[in-house]
Design a protein that fits this description.
By secondary structure, the chain is of the alpha+beta class. The chain is 49% helix and 19% strand. It comes from Actinoallomurus oryzae.
């Protein structure tokens, strides 16, 4: 996968992996909780567990270091532990300061941590479409060599009681999400979408051109030549990987860049239109409204007002 392009997309759609808490338990146990977030992830630090959701498939067996990404589900159920007696009901702790988590024993306890993926509205649409209802990332797979290390370092911060631990946990949440997506791309057949197309080696030269110069009037011939493919083969492969034609992908990328510029800068709409390759401000505004559902200026005012309101309530 092209790390630069993935990082660029992450920045544009404001992806953040946010760790929320977890639990450590020994003996038979069960934990069933509703899911309020569109994208959630569950990581098994140590022990064994079985994951079930309303995705309509059988339980997924989780081993140490495994991570599950749960996409647009309403509930999840985890079960684990060995021994006699009925399973103990476990409610996940919020945060990482509970004595149970801090004093967890990796030799005897099942330890689970969880979190969510925060994105802006555009990013949520992209990532939800690019992932299955439940993605299982196996720590034992060759593509996940860095995942287990990231998870171990994260839990070391959780249990180490060191200065700056809260900051470190936030940073490791970001890195853990990146490693999860990297590993998932490497070990699973992705549905068509931006993750799959960014991972495609043959299309990478064409994608690099579109990302490097989004305002240039790229034609199918230019992009196919960069990928060393015929126009027909390139167009068919791109649609298979991305789920949309190449020029539709380019337009969507331009719109994502436009949304970031309108959110984060005071650039004039006319200047932004020219920068992104539109012949006039009205042509850009029409394209933006078709993709986003509102005019560029209305979008700018709305997202800035919403940001101010969140800041005042924090």
């Amino acid at each position: 996968m092209s790390g630069d392009q993935l990082s660029e997309v992450f920045d544009v759609v404001e992806v953040r992996g946010v760790l929320s808490g977890g639990f450590a338990v020994r003996g038979p146990w069960v934990s069933q909780t509703p899911i309020a977030d569109p994208l959630k992830f569950i990581a098994l630090v140590c022990g064994r567990a079985r994951l079930t959701t309303d995705a309509g498939h059988g339980p997924i067996e989780l081993e140490p270091g495994d991570v599950a990404i749960i996409n647009n589900r309403s509930w999840l159920k985890l079960e684990g532990g060995t021994g006699d007696g009925p399973p103990r009901d476990v409610i996940p702790e919020e945060g990482f300061s509970s004595p149970g988590l801090i004093g967890a024993d990796s030799d005897t306890d099942d330890v689970v941590i969880g979190g969510r993926v925060d994105l802006n509205a555009a990013g949520q649409a992209l990532l939800l479409q690019a992932l299955p209802p439940v993605g299982h990332v196996r720590a034992s797979a060759s593509a996940a060599t860095n995942l287990r290390g990231s998870l171990d370092r994260l839990f070391d911060e959780v249990t180490g009681d060191r200065i700056g631990a809260a900051f470190a946990i936030r940073q490791y949440g970001q890195l853990l999400l990146l490693e999860v997506l990297r590993a998932y791309v490497g070990q699973a057949e992705l549905p068509p979408g931006w993750l799959r197309v960014l991972a495609d080696e043959r299309l990478r030269p064409a994608l690099s051109l579109m990302h490097a110069e989004p305002g240039r009037p790229w034609g199918l011939e230019d992009l196919a030549r960069a990928a060393a493919m015929s126009r027909t083969s390139f167009a068919e492969r791109f649609r298979t990987m991305a789920g949309i034609p190449p020029l539709a992908y380019l337009n969507r990328w331009r719109m994502l860049l436009a949304q970031r510029a309108l959110r984060d800068s005071d650039v004039r709409v006319g200047s932004l239109a020219a920068e992104l390759g539109y012949g006039s401000e009205s042509a850009f505004s029409t394209a933006f409204k078709r993709e986003v559902g509102e005019s560029p200026l209305r979008y700018r005012y709305r997202v800035r007002n919403e940001s101010s309101a969140r800041g005042e309530s924090a």
